[in-house]
Specification:
The protein has helices at residues 7-11, 19-22, 27-53, 63-68, 84-87, 123-141, 172-186, 197-203, 228-242, 244-260, 268-281, 291-307, 326-348, 353-364; strands at residues 4-5, 75-82, 101-111, 113-115, 118-119, 144-146, 153-156, 161-165, 167-171, 215-218, 222-225, 376-377. It is α+β, with helices and mostly antiparallel strands. The chain has two domains: 4-24 and 232-377; 27-227, no CATH class. Helix 9 crosses helix 10 (244-260), helix 10 (244-260) packs across helix 11 (268-281) and helix 13 (326-348) packs antiparallel against helix 14. The protein is elongated. It starts with a strand and ends in a 27-residue tail after the last strand. The structure holds magnesium ion. InterPro entries: DncV-like_NTFase, DncV_C, GAMP_synthase.
C-alpha cells in the first residue's frame, strides 16, 4: 500500500506548478511550429496547382499506370495532421539538442488507382514533387530538408522543431465518398472546410476512408498499407474509456523516455500501447486524482511488456511496436525496472517526503520540482518493512544515458 501521495508533485494543483506543467510545450514553440506548417502547406498547394494547371500531372504517374490507362492521372493534395500533436500527448523534450518537438502532417494525394492497392501515382515521384516544391522555401527560410527518412520528408525548422511529412495516396473514389459525408455533416466542401476535417473526423467515426485503402509512400518499398487515422481512433477511444489520466500517463512516460535516452528510446506509440494495456488488464483501480499510483502500476508492468512483443493495436499482423534487437531490449527492460524501483521506493518504500521527491527526480529528471511540501504522507509507521531499501541520504541524480 502506498504510504505517500505524490500526485500533486506530478500533476500539480491550482497553486502549484509541477511536472505536468514543466513538460508542456511552450506556447511560442507551438505557434512557430504551426506557422511553419501552414507555410509548407501553402507552398505545396501552389506547386500542385501549377502541376495540374499546366497539364503535367501525368508525368507523376507510374510506368504501369501510363501503360494501362488512357485517362490522365487525377491528382490533388489534402492535409491532415497526425501523431502526438493531434492525440494531445506532445511534450517539450527534456534534452534539447538533440531532441526536437515533432509535428507530423500527413499529405494525402487524392489520386487515380491502378487497382485496389496500387496508386497510379509513383511513390518516388511523389517524394520528388514534395522535395522539389519545398527546397526553395527551405532555402528562403534557412530550414533544412531531410530526404533520407524512409516514410516521410522531414523539414528541420530550427534546433527545437522538425516537421515530418508522410506521403499518402487515397483513391479518388473513396475521396468522393469522404467529401460527400463531410459536406452532409458540415454543409461545406472539403476544400473550404479543411481546417475542420480533424474535428469532424473526431465527431463522426463513420466518416472514414477504409483503412486498407490508405497507402503510404516508402522510399525503398514503394507503397505500403498504413492508416494513421486508425491508430488515432484507437487512442481516442481508449482515452474515452479510461479517462483523462491515461493521456497524462502517456505524457509522463514520454518525459521519462526523453530524460533517460538522449536518442532512440522506446517509441511513443509503444509506450502508449503499454499504458493502455496497464489500464485494460486491471488488477488495480485507477483513481483520477492519483497519477502517481497510475505511474507505479504502469511501471510495475513495463518490464514484462517490454520483454515480450508489443502488438500494433490496429494492425495485429503488422510489425510489432518493439522490433528491438536483444541488446536494446535488455537496455529498455533494465530502464523500466529502474523506473519501477524508483516509483516503488518513492511511494511505498519511504515515509520521508524528501526521499519521495529525490526518487521521482531520479526517475524523471529535475522537471519534477524539489517540493517535498507537495507530498503527503499517509502513515508514518508501515506495518511491514518495504521491499526496497530506504536510503537515508539523497543519491546524486542519474546521468541520462545515450543510445548505442
Ligand atoms: Mg515524426
Amino acid at each position: 500500500m502506498a504510504l505517500m501521495n505524490a500526485n500533486t508533485l506530478l500533476y500539480g494543483a491550482r497553486d502549484a506548478i509541477a511536472y505536468h506543467q514543466a513538460i508542456q510545450l511552450p506556447d511560442d514553440v507551438r505557434a512557430a511550429m504551426f506557422q511553419a506548417d501552414r507555410d509548407i502547406r501553402a507552398r505545396l498547394r501552389k506547386v500542385t496547382r501549377f502541376v495540374i494547371d499546366s497539364g503535367r500531372a501525368m508525368s507523376y504517374a507510374s510506368a504501369e499506370y501510363r501503360r494501362a490507362k488512357q485517362e490522365p492521372l487525377q491528382f490533388e493534395l489534402r492535409f491532415l495532421r497526425q501523431g502526438s500533436v493531434v492525440y494531445d500527448t506532445v511534450i517539450d523534450p527534456a534534452r534539447r539538442p538533440p531532441q526536437q518537438t515533432d509535428l507530423d502532417d500527413g499529405i494525402y494525394a487524392r489520386t487515380s488507382f491502378l487497382s485496389d492497392f496500387e496508386p497510379g501515382l509513383a511513390a518516388t515521384k511523389y517524394f520528388e514533387l514534395v522535395e522539389t516544391a519545398l527546397a526553395p522555401l527551405c532555402k528562403e527560410r534557412g530550414w533544412r530538408l531531410v530526404t533520407n527518412k524512409d516514410t516521410c520528408v522531414r523539414v528541420v525548422i530550427d534546433e527545437k522543431i522538425h516537421i515530418d511529412l508522410p506521403l499518402y495516396a487515397v483513391p479518388d473514389t473513396e475521396f468522393v465518398t469522404l467529401e460527400k459525408c463531410f459536406q452532409d455533416v458540415t454543409g461545406l466542401k472539403l476544400v473550404a472546410g479543411s481546417a475542420r476535417l480533424s474535428t469532424v473526423l473526431d465527431g463522426f467515426s463513420d466518416i472514414r476512408i477504409p483503412t486498407d485503402r490508405v497507402m503510404l509512400a516508402h522510399r525503398k518499398k514503394g507503397w505500403i498499407s498504413s492508416d494513421p487515422r486508425a491508430l488515432h481512433d484507437w487512442f481516442v477511444r481508449e482515452c474515452e474509456r479510461h479517462g483523462p489520466q491515461l493521456r497524462r500517463t502517456c505524457r509522463y512516460l514520454k518525459g521519462w523516455r526523453d530524460f533517460l535516452f538522449l536518442e532512440g528510446g522506446p517509441a511513443s506509440i509503444a509506450l502508449m500501447a503499454c499504458a493502455v494495456r496497464s489500464y485494460k488488464e486491471g488488477g488495480w483501480v485507477p483513481q483520477n486524482d492519483r497519477d502517481d499510483l497510475a505511474m507505479l502500476e504502469i511501471a510495475k508492468r513495463l518490464p514484462v511488456f517490454f520483454s515480450a512483443t508489443i502488438v500494433n493495436p490496429v494492425l495485429p499482423d503488422a510489425e510489432p511496436l518493439n522490433d528491438w534487437d536483444e541488446v536494446t531490449r535488455k537496455r529498455f527492460v533494465n530502464a523500466a525496472n529502474d523506473l519501477h524501483g524508483h516509483m516503488h521506493t518513492a511511494l511505498e518504500g519511504t515515509a520521508n517526503a524528501e526521499i519521495t521527491v529525490r526518487r521521482l527526480q531520479e526517475a524523471l529528471g529535475t522537471r519534477v520540482p524539489y517540493r517535498p511540501d507537495l507530498v503527503r504522507a499517509f502513515d508514518k509507521t508501515p506495518a511491514r518493512a518495504p521491499v526496497a531499501a530506504v536510503v537515508a541520504s539523497p543519491l546524486p541524480l542519474r546521468r541520462p544515458t545515450t543510445s548505442a
